[in-house]
Write a structure and sequence with these properties.
Sodium/glucose cotransporter, mainly alpha, 0% strand
């Protein structure tokens, strides 16, 4: 029964996505940005599902299993970053009519800066994001269906099989369907994930509350009230002080400049729809802990903190509390979430390579069909590489989610630095951007992979979010100093391409302020 419902729901999503995709993929704009036709609801759904994949569902619940509610900052503070993106970054992106974030860097600085940024994005996707999504998704499904025991194979073999199965299916969505197919499937799965995710929380609380959700909450709190404190101490994975340093920078990079995420908003039919989509998604992110944190805490209560692998907390909870008939449906929803993050990152990789590398450096005269075709070929290669790398990250030291966030710093902060400075200044030259982006990536890598483990030791070294903030400030200062002594010959003026109507949503400021206030109140409540 579980297998039948899993296959039926997955097939339904694929069929509807194909039916609604139409012919937009025939042009580069259609393939990479869905014909710039996405509305607020589709943008919000796609943003949520692209974000809420198993590296979040499994990884963040794994951290909540270990530390409690303090890890909610990864969810709730995202809402503030999305508000900033809607107010500050998105109007500028759409005014310039860009398809990729590195395209702005070319307009603001030069072609080489754009290429360096694109290469950094692609490196991060193939080495970190894509493999982590594949591995975490495989771990979840293998655990939920107890594949090793059912089929008499080893855990490692089961993970390899699921990595390649997910990778191949996700590749078909992303490479051959384009962004619109990805976004439509995301939206359908978003509904299932929100319903299914809340269902797991309700069933879990009911299970530990002997049939009562309220009793379950009471038991959960009374068992370990200290785990309901959102203020992390110095030894926590996310100390409270990091909220005021690197945390907001990471959030702003992810929601405002990460190609795999912002590409959904870039595909908006106009600025109004893009801003509404971001704000709607921000509202749901505030509710994110119900799906991404509380289940991990329930698992800690149920399994008495005895799990050897914290990242197995969520799939084991699902298997324990869901009725057997519903396991297949939820596995299909989870499978959709896995596909979402994988195919979204892969689609963005195809976009970056096709437009920013192939057309720019290999074949400037290529027509749209050639660019799309070469992008697809690169996507196939990238997917295969990710499928080989994925099983090798099984022994991530701080859990999947912590591993993902720390490694991302190699490219996230350098790229964020040059984008922010690029928009806020008019005379900082291209050489400053190239120095900052290369220096930021190199110094962060030296810091985290040489100095931290081999020179100072894990215990005596600053938290990686503090390191990110320090490097951000240093690089901004370097860029400004270079701008003072070697400025551009003329001030930068962002051109208006008129590709998209940039009339803003009239309630964007009050709604954005309301979201920020709710986030602050949630912290006050859990402090």
């Amino acid at each position: 029964m579980a297998i039948i419902s899993f296959i039926a729901f997955t097939a339904m999503v694929a069929a509807v996505s194909y039916w609604l995709t139409g012919k937009t993929e025939e042009t580069a704009d259609g393939y990479f940005l869905g014909g710039r036709s996405l509305t607020a609801g589709v943008i919000a759904g796609s943003l949520l599902l692209t974000n809420l994949s198993t590296e979040q569902i499994v990884g963040l619940n794994g951290q909540a299993y270990t530390e409690g509610i303090l890890v909610m900052c990864w969810e709730t503070l995202a809402a503030i970053a999305m508000v900033i993106t809607a107010l500050f970054l998105l109007p500028r992106y759409l005014k310039g009519g860009i398809t990729t974030v590195p395209q702005f860097l070319e307009t603001r600085y030069d072609t080489m800066t754009k290429t360096i940024a694109s290469v950094l994005f692609l490196s991060g996707y193939v080495i970190v994001l894509l493999p982590v999504v594949l591995y975490s998704g495989s771990l979840a499904l293998v655990t939920m269906f107890d594949v090793p025991a059912t089929f008499g194979i080893s855990h490692t073999t089961a993970v390899w099989i699921f990595v390649w199965g997910i990778g191949l299916i996700g590749s078909v969505y992303a490479i051959f369907g384009g962004l619109k197919a990805v976004a439509v499937s995301d939206t359908i799965n978003a509904v299932g994930l929100l319903i299914g995710g809340i269902m797991i929380t309700v069933f879990g609380l009911t299970h530990i509350g002997d049939g009562s959700v309220v009793t379950g909450i009471t038991n959960l709190y009374n068992d370990a009230p200290e785990r309901f404190n959102a203020i992390g101490g110095p030894e926590a994975s996310v100390p409270f002080s990091t909220i005021f340093t690197g945390m907001m920078l990471v959030q702003l990079f992810y929601w405002g400049t990460n190609q795999a995420i912002i590409q959904r908003a870039l595909a908006a039919k106009n600025l109004k729809e893009g801003q509404k989509g971001l704000l709607l998604a921000a509202f749901f992110k505030i509710l994110g802990p119900l799906i991404l944190v509380i289940p991990g805490m329930i698992a800690f209560y149920m399994f008495k903190g005895q799990l050897d692998i914290p990242d197995q907390a969520y799939p084991k909870l699902v298997k324990e509390v869901l009725p057997v008939a519903m396991v297949g449906f939820f596995a299909a929803v989870l499978f959709g979430a896995i596909l979402s993050s994988f195919n979204s990152a892969l689609n963005s990789s195809v976009t970056l390579f096709g437009l920013d590398i192939y057309k720019e450096h290999f074949n400037p005269d290529a027509d749209d069909k050639t660019v799309v075709r070469m992008g697809k070929m690169f996507g196939i290669l990238l997917a295969i590489m990710a499928m080989f790398i994925a099983p090798m990250i099984a022994n991530a030291p701080d859990g999947l989610f912590g591993y993902l966030q720390e490694i991302n710093g190699c490219y996230s902060i350098p790229i964020l630095t040059i984008i922010i400075v690029g928009y806020l200044t008019k005379y900082v030259p291209a050489i400053a951007a190239k120095i900052a982006i290369v220096l930021g990536a190199v110094l962060y890598s030296i810091s985290q992979f040489i100095l931290k483990p081999h020179v100072f030791g894990e215990e005596n070294y600053p938290h990686f979010l503090h390191v990110m903030a320090g490097l951000f400030v240093m690089n901004v200062v370097i860029m400004l100093v270079i701008g003072m002594f070697k400025p551009r010959s003329e001030a930068f003026d962002l051109p208006y391409t008129e590709q998209v109507d940039i009339t803003p949503y009239k309630y964007v400021k009050p709604v954005g302020l309301g979201i920020v206030i709710v986030v602050i109140l949630s912290y006050l409540y859990f402090s």
